[in-house]
Queue: 2 jobs
Job 1
Amino acid sequence: MNDENNRNEPCPIARSLAFAGDAWSLLILRDAHAGLTRFDQFRKSLGIAPTMLTRRLATLTEEGLLEKQRYSEHPPREEYLLTAAGRDFLPVLFMIGEWGRQYRGGGKLVRFFDAENGTEIRAVAVDEVTGAKIGTRPIRMVAPDES
Amino acid sequence: MNDENNRNEPCPIARSLAFAGDAWSLLILRDAHAGLTRFDQFRKSLGIAPTMLTRRLATLTEEGLLEKQRYSEHPPREEYLLTAAGRDFLPVLFMIGEWGRQYRGGGKLVRFFDAENGTEIRAVAVDEVTGAKIGTRPIRMVAPDES
DNA sequence: GGTGTTACTATCAAATTGAAACGAACGATA
DNA sequence: TATCGTTCGTTTCAATTTGATAGTAACACC
């Protein structure tokens, strides 16, 4: 779907989708958050064709969500690490996961816990100002002025 | 990517991506939240080919995020309304938007305000239990037991 | 020398996408 | 009655994307 167009849309959602509107990329990011860094780790975890993986890793790197780091000179080997932008994508993944848990939750599911106090994490999106859950209060959308 | 497999993965993110790992679907949901309901409204808003739109609307309907409602018998006309599952997808869209605002925010952007008190909405994902922002505390992942 | 590991690239058939044109059912206008 | 416009699609088909499989390059280990 022409991603280049989305890049200049006034809608921040459309802009994000220019790279994130693709399941493989999101699953790679998920695995990166889970600690995977290397080509073959991703490949085995996802069962993705290597051509796809090469392309997706390249895109995510270009887009600034991952960065390549050399971890061996001989032979030359690189691993993919999350950048700040990549780490800040975690809330998106959690909200996607929360929706899946609620509406596609049959059978066994992976669960997430706060490592320090052991409580299960229940992600909710709130408005930082009012503290209200997103979706519980009416929203007004304002387009940027055309000037 | 084979979506049918994802559907039975233990990861709730993968499960959601079985239908949402696609930019068009997310943009349709965005527009549905903005109040659009009809085929041609979506088509014009998105510039999507009608073939694609037909398919995406059908998938979103099958998946239970939208529902078809007849609004005219003669001629037979239907509109697409958000279901509860579709409405509950809003937090995901907001978090995607928030990331885009932070990392792809150049130029003019649409903004969202609380319609009642006029403050701009800043969506953040927090853990409902601890109140901490997602990503600020260490997370432990627990796979379901294999039994 | 042989085997294994890692990180890819090459090839190519199959599936998906998207642009464009067409259609069916009506309602409104002249 | 004829024609135009609207809505919600379907048909067709070329171009792109995909994913499965195989191959490669550069080493390390024994």
Job 2
Amino acid sequence: MGKTKKSKASIYDIAQAVGVSPAAVSYVINGKDKVSEKTKAKILSAMAEMGYVVNQTAVSLSRGKSSLVGVCFPLNSSSLVFSDNPFYSEFLANFEKEISKNGYDTIIGYLQTPQDFERWIVSRGLDGLVLFGLYSPEIFKIILAHKVPFILTDFYDPEFKASSIRIDDEKGGYLAGKHLIELGHKNIAFIGGPVEASKVDSKRLEGLNAALKEVGLSCALHLEAPTTFDGGYNAATVLKEHPEITAVFCGSDIVAIGLMRHAQELQVSIPDDLSVIGFDDLQACTYVYPALTTIRQNIPLKGQLAADNLLKAMKGEINPDPQTLTPTLVVRNSTSKPRF
Amino acid sequence: MGKTKKSKASIYDIAQAVGVSPAAVSYVINGKDKVSEKTKAKILSAMAEMGYVVNQTAVSLSRGKSSLVGVCFPLNSSSLVFSDNPFYSEFLANFEKEISKNGYDTIIGYLQTPQDFERWIVSRGLDGLVLFGLYSPEIFKIILAHKVPFILTDFYDPEFKASSIRIDDEKGGYLAGKHLIELGHKNIAFIGGPVEASKVDSKRLEGLNAALKEVGLSCALHLEAPTTFDGGYNAATVLKEHPEITAVFCGSDIVAIGLMRHAQELQVSIPDDLSVIGFDDLQACTYVYPALTTIRQNIPLKGQLAADNLLKAMKGEINPDPQTLTPTLVVRNSTSKPRF
DNA sequence: CTGAAAGCGCTAACAT
DNA sequence: ATGTTAGCGCTTTCAG
């Protein structure tokens, strides 16, 4: 039974007050247009008077939909990726803003095992899911088994019929490379994350390589580092040992920011000694000094589109062609001509 | 009715399979110890076999509790404060991590009107609430009316019986002032947010003033700016017009970061021309150059304590004495002796 | 130790 | 146009 006596007015209470059936009340709540204007007005005023608020839980149980959507971020190494990379909170803020307009609330999944994952989506009866990065086939089996609409973000290998949204990572990498090349750099390094979590960095590297190849160059050094500030910070040590490298392209801004920070501590001046270009265009790009040149992906737009697409997916409208946003180059102050 | 036929096994299904009543299944699920070991074992194995997952919605309706908690951030000027200030996402990440261990999911409130607010908490049947900053009496009336356990964060004026957690803002301000004074600064400015959203900045200013007073000084300039990067950025213009000011204490790191950024663009060198000290100790403090000297509040700890206190509050254990964390000074590179 | 059954608040056939 | 009623899946008295 409920916890207390009668904490809130139910449709029964208001039905009784007006002298109609609960169904009638339900109809007007849901705009079913099965009630005369007259009784509708009475019901409405009774609802207002009695401070009626719908019980979503009851609606959920009855309708079999929770009005709850879940978002899962790539779970690298048990860390709170959500706070490791501002990208996710920027995305999330915009996603939530958009989807909450449609009556959905968002919960975040902190999932370790496929069992956890299954419990999470089914026990909450999630109406939709947004998935970032890569997941095991086992996870997908679960999602598919439960028929939960989902969209993929920053995902490749489209073996599922699902809407997906990503950006043209290769193009982005190409733009970064082109920019560095036009500046006159010959020895360019790349720092990207481990492939297990996401393939976006590989694509970005491909783009860089394509630009390099056009002018007969190739990537001078490929470093793998976690997609975190510390990942970039630590990579600086390696770069310090390679004075021939005059520019570095980081697969993520947060890595570039960490790198710049440590580079400055190591007395390598940016951009004079080393040009740095990132990827994402976090707000933090303008926090740092010099401001970070980067490949911009429109994060707010991405969040909004993710919401739109998920909304559609939940209505059964799936667009299997990945929706690909075009990144752009944003030149700030962390890149310049090489010194020599 | 439900949406499809029989998407998932219910306790009825597993009861039937084992040859017991649904109640028995419910008992073992909830560890009620009313079932013999023998049937318990059978039930358990049937659950595993049939892939039983509890339906939280049904539990919620039956028990009158949702296992959902809400968090509300101060709603300044219709902006996504959540992405404006990394403080909130850092807090949230840690809060969620902690509270999700106890089976709760978290939803965020984007609330404009008291009506929205009421709908939100009651329709979802939130089990608990964490409130940041200030809210209107009207909002509190609603919360109290619905008896939703809540905790206050960064809140003063304790007219309610509620657990609250905050830091010793005045002490923090004092530490900041002391640091600047010891460095030899005489003309110190303060930049804080508008009082409507939160009183923490006023307290921080009080602390600064206390330190100043000890040595016969007073605050040279008090600027009000939104607690955002842009707020700080714009404030730099004013400071530029006051060359006599050699140091500034910002009520929030994000403001300090914006200020530093613009100051550098305006050719005022930090810390040589201007010492800057912030408050919070965001991760971004180490992103920037020079790294920001700040008053550290342990954000992860705060998130964790908020979760602990809310958990307790939901059990009826309320601690009306505000839990006050002690901030500490973290000296980095944005402060130094004044030039003259 | 075990089961029957009455709710929790709402929706959606199915009558009337 | 409006009402009746059977669920949705689970909890929890109350009997047996």
